[in-house]
Design brief:
The protein has 481 residues and is an alpha/beta fold. The protein has 4 domains: 124 residues, Response regulator (Rossmann fold, 3-Layer(aba) Sandwich); 152 residues, Rossmann fold; 75 residues, Helicase, Ruva Protein, domain 3 (Orthogonal Bundle); 57 residues, Arc Repressor Mutant, subunit A. 48% of the residues lie in helices and 13% in strands. The chain contains 21 helices and 16 strands. A 5-stranded parallel β-sheet has the order 2-1-3-4-5, sandwiched between helices. α3 links the parallel β3 and β4. α13 crosses α15, α14 crosses α16 and α20 crosses α21. It is globular, with a radius of gyration of 28 Å.
Length: 481
């Protein structure tokens, strides 16, 4: 039988959990204060698991977690909270919590975590326990912010992941579209790590020519190239004992990739034009909005650097895939810009909010921030209306914009459709790809056109610009009756 200590001042939670756990498998003891928990743990050495509420009346659960880990580091602690706070989740995982769960509990999830924790009661979590799969979850916010905003399950998972990654000192690769907040994740990892007192420096890999970029990263000796009139200290050297963030790492040239790989593997490098080995003590975090797997297939990215950077990875979905956080983000930006402009906080009209929720947000968080800032600058009243937001106009005109895009850049549109599926087609349909794609496109086009015109063959053939005989032939060929 496993002994569980529940520390929570909510007696309803205690009653619920006592009825949930199998009395033949678990024994649950409930205390309501941090002091009571400390007394219990001092007197009992057979505790297998602590379930600890973040909000306690006299001492916060996070403070108690730290004390428990100082005296009984082998006891797993599950933090529980009725309020979603990404900062609490980060701190809990950084301080060694086994898991961070929010109320109301998902029963299957809770039981799974408790069983896992009790199974590992005599051992600390190893480094492998914090390695996520490539598609973990998400995060958000504008460049330069120190906050992670949101209450969605994806955001909580990212916050917990940040807390875990802050405890280890290993290269990390962050995936996500432009504007989703990749640098924010990197900054959060740095801010919560043992390197927090060191510098956090950024290298924009897409911003400069190769020679200048290598000089920025590694530094150069005087006379190393035309215009090198003095010795330069690179960002690897400037970031000593801190974190170096490579934004859009896919844009590095192959030669620079090779030098970066060597610097990571050997913890040393040479300045451009130099021979002296310079030792480095830097954590490398990289980010990309492009597919590195595709870049590897195309020969533009080194597979060895990919695996060196991707010791652990974080994936942040687009804003359109986490619309639940949209109201929270909008409220955050409105309040932030109101404070900056020293004005009252306006309301967001229901009509504007409804339109924004339907918008696809191709520019993600950055686009949202710019929209709110634009509205706040131009706003004359105390309510933000649809006409105050550029995104609302774009959402209302989305169909027209898409048709214009199709007319002007249809090749780009088809490329986005074909590129992801072409490798599989090439593997399974060699010699037939051209006919396969042409017939698939033709069938989809005619089928959609028939639906659009109510199966009226005259209107369909006129709209498509083909003869009725050709249309009838295709209907029979593809069985589109």
């Amino acid at each position: 039988m496993k002994n569980i200590l529940l520390v929570d001042d909510d007696r309803d939670v205690s009653r619920s959990l006592k009825s949930l756990f199998d009395s033949g498998k678990f024994h649950l003891t409930h205390v309501t204060t941090a002091e009571g928990a400390q007394v219990y743990l001092n007197e009992r050495s057979d505790t297998d698991l602590v379930m600890l509420d973040v909000n306690l009346p006299e001492m916060s659960g996070l403070e108690l977690l730290k004390k428990i880990k100082e005296t009984s580091s082998d006891i797993p602690v599950i933090m529980i909270s009725g309020q979603v706070s990404t900062e609490n989740a980060i701190q809990a995982m950084r301080e060694g919590a086994f898991e961070y769960l929010t109320k109301p509990f998902e029963i299957d999830r809770l039981l799974g975590v408790v069983n896992q924790a009790c199974g590992y009661a005599s051992a600390s979590k190893s480094q492998s326990d914090v390695r996520p799969q490539e598609n973990v979850s998400s995060l958000t916010l504008q460049s330069g912010s120190e906050e992670i905003i949101g209450k969605s399950p994806e955001i909580v998972e990212i916050a917990k992941l940040v807390g875990n990654l802050a405890k280890i000192d290993t290269p990390t690769l962050i995936f996500g579209e432009t504007g989703t907040g990749k640098e924010l994740v990197a900054r959060a990892i740095h801010r919560n790590s043992s390197r927090r007192s060191g510098p956090f420096l950024t290298v924009n890999c897409a911003s400069q020519a190769d020679t200048l970029l290598e000089s920025e990263i590694f530094g150069h000796e005087k006379g190393a190239f035309t215009g090198a009139y003095y010795k330069r200290v690179g960002k690897f050297e400037q970031a000593h004992s801190g974190t170096l963030f490579f934004d859009e790492v896919a844009d590095l040239s192959l030669s620079t990739q090779a030098k970066l790989l060597r610097a990571i593997e050997e913890s040393s490098y040479e300045r451009v034009g130099g021979t002296e080995k310079i030792r480095t003590n830097v954590r490398v975090i990289a980010a990309t909005s492009k597919s590195l797997v595709q870049a590897i297939k195309e020969g533009s990215f080194r597979v060895d650097l990919f695996y060196r950077l991707k010791v652990v990875s974080v994936f942040m979905p687009a804003l359109k895939d986490r619309k639940g956080d949209l109201p929270i983000l909008i409220d955050y930006f409105i309040n932030r810009f109101a404070a900056q402009m020293n004005r009252s906080v306006p309301k967001m009209s229901a009509e504007a909010m409804d339109t924004l929720s339907k918008y696809s947000w191709p520019g993600n968080i950055r686009e949202l921030e710019n929209n709110i800032q634009s509205a706040m600058v131009m706003l004359k009243g105390d309510e933000i209306l649809p006409e105050d937001l550029p995104a609302c106009a774009e959402a209302e005109n989305a169909l027209e914009l898409d048709l214009e895009s199709l007319q002007e850049s249809h090749v780009d549109l088809f490329n986005k459709i074909i590129e992801p599926i072409l490798p599989k087609l090439a593997a399974n349909n060699e010699g037939k790809i051209y006919n396969f794609l042409n017939s698939a496109m033709e069938r989809a086009l005619i089928s959609s056109a028939l639906k659009l015109y109510g199966s009226n063959q005259v209107k369909t053939s006129e709209a498509l610009g083909i003869s009725r005989n050709t249309l009838r032939d295709r209907i029979a060929r593809y069985s589109l009756y």
